[in-house]
C-alpha cells in the first residue's frame, strides 16, 4: 500500500485514525460516515505516505459550520503547526484563507494579482474601512434615494450599498470609505434629512473586501463594472 510494508502501513493507519479522531469509528462502513468524517478519512489516505507538502482544493465545501471549523483546525493546528507540513490551499472562501493562511495569492483571470500575508493584503491594498449605519422606521423612497446619491458624492466615499427589504423598508446603508474619513461627514446628510439612526458600526477590511477592490468582483462571481453603486435587497 503506497509502497509501505505491512507493519509500517498498520502503524501509520493507527496513528492517522487517532490523529483525525476516527479511531472509535474505524470499523464502520465508509457510507455510514457523515460528510465531515468522510472528509477526514480522505485526509487519512492523503497522509498515509507522510509527504511534507499537501495540496487541498476547496477542502471544506459541503461541510456544516462545525465540521468545517474542525477540519480547518486539523489542517492548521495539527498538520501545519505540530507536524510542520507545507499546505497549499485553493478556496473561494476568503474567510477561510484569512483565518488559516500565512501567505495568500489572489488569482484573477489566471494571473497572480496579489501575493502577501493576509494582513498586508488587507491593509496595504485597501486604504479604507467599512461603515454600517442602521436606520429606524425608514422607507426607501425618492428622498431616501437622494440621500444615497448625496452620500455617494462625498469625497472619500468609495461605495454605498443600501439595505432595502422587498416592501421598501430602508433598514440601513453600508459605506466603503477612506480610513481617514471623518464619520460626521456621512452622518450629517442622514440626520439633516430626518432619518433616525439606530446604530453605527465600523469594520476593518476583510480579505474579501481586498479581493473585491483588486478584481472588481466577489470570489466566484463574474466581473462587474467598476464604480457602480451596489444594492442589497432582503
* Computed CA radius of gyration, to the nearest angstrom: 24 Å
> Which blocks of ≥5 consecutive residues have pLDDT under 50?
221-234
Structural class: alpha/beta
What level of helicity do the residues show?
A: 25-40%
- Which H/E pattern describes the elements? HHEHEHEEHEHEEHEHE
Q: What's the main sheet like?
A: 5 strands, mixed
Average pLDDT number: 85
From the coordinates shown, what is the CATH architecture of the domain at 127-204? 2-Layer Sandwich
Q: Give the beta-strand count.
A: 9
CATH H-level name of the domain at 127-204... which superfamily? Dimeric alpha+beta barrel
How many helix segments?
Answer: 8
Overview of the molecule:
The protein is α/β, with parallel strands linked by helices. Among the domains are: 6-76, no CATH class; 127-204, 2-Layer Sandwich (Alpha-Beta Plaits), CATH 3.30.70.1060. It contains eight helices and nine strands. The protein has helices at 6-20, 35-47, 65-82, 94-100, 118-124, 142-152, 184-192, 207-215; strands at 53-57, 86-90, 104-108, 111-116, 128-136, 157-164, 170-178, 196-203, 232-233. The strands form three sheets. It has a five-stranded mixed beta sheet with strand order 8-5-7-6-9, with helices on one face. A two-stranded parallel sheet has the order 1-2. A two-stranded antiparallel sheet has the order 3-4. The longest helix has 18 residues, at 65-82. The radius of gyration is 24 Å and the shape is elongated. The chain starts with 5 loop residues before the first helix and ends with a strand.
